[in-house]
Design goal:
The chain is an alpha/beta fold. It is 40% helix and 21% strand. Helix 3 packs across helix 10 and helix 7 packs antiparallel against helix 10.
């Protein structure tokens, strides 16, 4: 009977609402509903105490089966205060989160189509409806927390105004890989195919892939990244890695802005 109740509770659990409520309960932020999908708000949190620079935007939960991102972001918000103007999109894809699936409830990928090469998702349309505001909030840097459900190693996509990966890429790569004793991913280089790049170096550099991070970088954001924690390792550890990635990202951008 206890197992039945546990299963029933899991089945009825509205994880997206719980995450959104938890995000809103953190003091020091104003909440704004940018739009909604199936009745779930797409929330933006901006700091009440406005600091002029740097302007940083952190997003998580673009993909519903990459759950450590939103929990890592919550962990960061609960445990760290920052000397920067940092805003948050805590859960971009609430309907995917509730179904524990990558895409939204309409089976659209919320992280594609921003460059007009393919159809935009509901969530993408909401983000672009507030494009001017979000680009202003991200004007010094944008980080999107993702996971790769199939992997045991960390990798990431980075964007910086250079021909080859620089300090920004290396700082974030080192942050993620140090948690996994995975420094063997080592030398940074850029190659032709994404899959080869990921396998050999843990880094994909300045990839134009119609994602939100690629879009923001092409529209003036100087530092952008999409980090991919490995879905095959312990969940609590992935939460801590994501929290550390947020902290490291903010510290890096703050020293360069
Ligand atoms: Ni993803």
């Amino acid at each position: 009977m206890r197992i039945f109740h546990k299963l029933l509770h899991e089945a009825l659990r509205d994880e997206a609402s719980e995450l959104l409520q938890n995000s809103q309960s953190i003091p020091g932020f104003s909440h704004r509903k940018l739009g909604s999908v199936d009745g779930y708000p797409i929330l933006l949190l901006t700091p009440n105490e406005h600091k002029t620079r740097p302007n940083i935007l952190i997003a998580s939960g673009f993909h519903g089966d990459e759950q450590a991102g939103p929990y890592g972001l919550l962990h960061f918000m609960r445990h760290h205060r920052v000397n920067a103007n940092v805003s948050f999109l805590p859960l971009v894809n609430p309907t995917g989160m509730n179904k524990k699936q990558r895409n939204n409830s309409k089976n659209e990928n919320p992280n594609r189509g921003f460059d007009g090469t393919q159809e935009l998702s509901e969530e993408g349309k909401i983000l672009l409806k507030h494009d001017k505001l979000l680009r202003k909030l991200a004007s010094d840097g944008f980080l999107s927390l993702h996971e790769d459900p199939d992997k045991t190693t960390f990798y990431l996509y980075t964007y910086e105004r250079r021909k080859s990966p620089g300090d920004f890429s290396e700082t974030l790569r080192a942050c993620g890989s140090k948690w996994l004793n995975d420094t063997s991913m080592g030398v940074l280089k850029n190659q032709e195919s994404s899959s080869t790049k990921v396998l050999e170096t843990g880094l994909v550099f300045n990839e134009k892939d119609s994602s939100y991070e690629s879009y923001l970088f092409q529209n003036g954001v100087p530092y952008a990244a999409c980090t991919e924690t490995p879905g095959q390792i312990d969940f609590d550890k992935r939460v801590l890695i994501n929290s550390d990635l947020v902290k490291t990202f903010i510290e890096f951008v703050a020293t360069r802005s």
